[in-house]
Amino acid sequence: MRVKKFASIVLMVGVCVSILAGCGNSSDDSKSSGSSKGGSNEIVFWNPFTGPDGSNIKAMVDEYNKTNPEFKVKNVSMKEGDMYTKIPTVVNSGKNIPDLNIIHAERIKQYKDNDMLQAYDDALTDYPEIKAENYVPESWNIGDLDGSRYSVPLDIHTSGTYYNKELVEKYTPNALDDNIITYDEIKEAGEKAQKDDVSALGVTWMKPILLSLYKQHGGELSSDGIDPTLDNSAMEDSIALWKELYDSGITTKDGEDPYQLFVAGKVMFYPEGIWMRNDVNEAQFDWGLTNAPQISDDLSKAVNWSSSHQFVMFKNENRSDEKTKGIMDFLEWVRTNSLEWAKAGQNPATLDLLNNDEYLEMPQSMFINDPAMQETLTIFDYKYNGYVSEYMDAHALDVIFGKAEVSDFAPSMQKEVADKVAKDNSNK
């Protein structure tokens, strides 16, 4: 997603509970609800790319279709919320099921447990290069459940920190020598910058920031994969740290637009996702991209929140073996032709791009071009991650801005998520 206004981000995440990237406001490419049906020699491909990245996925599909495959791909981009609403309806009805779908990694477990996904195991037999060694591990591993493969990754997108190089040089010149900015370094720089009306840190999308901090503090969303484990000191310490930063006056304020202030040169560190790269290019100064803010400067302990767009096949009795082969032909082509997706500000999951100089010059490639950096990428694949996201999106900023109590944040989230999980399981 490319959105400039933080207010727009807050509105969107109510719908995009799994991940911000890839959402948008445009209608699907088919231009009408009925035209998402495909012919016998078409692969109907649903995806949630309706923002600027929609043009990138369309360009990729168009390029593939120019290779004259036996089964051409019909690109159907739709609003994320609409797509996720339609999926259970069409799968349960057995009608108009897409041949291929992009979903967010956090949804794989739930769809698999609901017996909605077709495993790739048999289809992969004739495609030996679609294998773990050729993909970023965190993006590949999430599709492996109970010994079967249920997805193939398109990308792994990460929340890091953009920074103003001139301001860093002025207020904390050696902080990024190790490519890590710690919260202690941010505090120190912020105290120096206050006199110049410069904020050290933008208050942006808190969910990925808090989840990163939570894991840094040793927290886990669930110990058994079902019941949440959120009411603990790790969660309270995570939200309390940001409240402390805000109260100290070194962050952007309630009502301010951190993006606009960053590109105007009034914010030193702007924690956001790699999908914002093309927007940040509007800044009239030299900027860089580094890890998300960390507690420690030890890279082996760093946590960079990530998610992944994944190719899945929903169960469909009408999908022929020939069409499945056509789908695999497309996925193999994507594995070696993903530069266009990188141009959208994303990190394709395929390691094939590590041989591409144009990609390696892109700032987001820093998360992929070093195995040690790949180890920092963390997808929070708790089955009920969406409920955690909903709570954080609705309440984290209120706590930071002093409209709610720090002490209420973790226990209230625990109760809300646990209640929703219990309700889901009681309905089965």
TrEMBL record:
SUPFAM superfamilies: Periplasmic binding protein-like II. Residues 1-21 form the signal peptide. The keyword Membrane does not apply. PROSITE patterns: PROKAR_LIPOPROTEIN (PS51257). It comes from the Bacteria. Keywords: Signal, Sugar transport, Transport. InterPro entries: Bact_solute-bd_prot1, SBP. This is Multiple sugar transport system substrate-binding protein. It comes from Candidatus Enterococcus lowellii. The lineage of its organism: Bacteria, Bacillati, Bacillota, Bacilli, Lactobacillales.
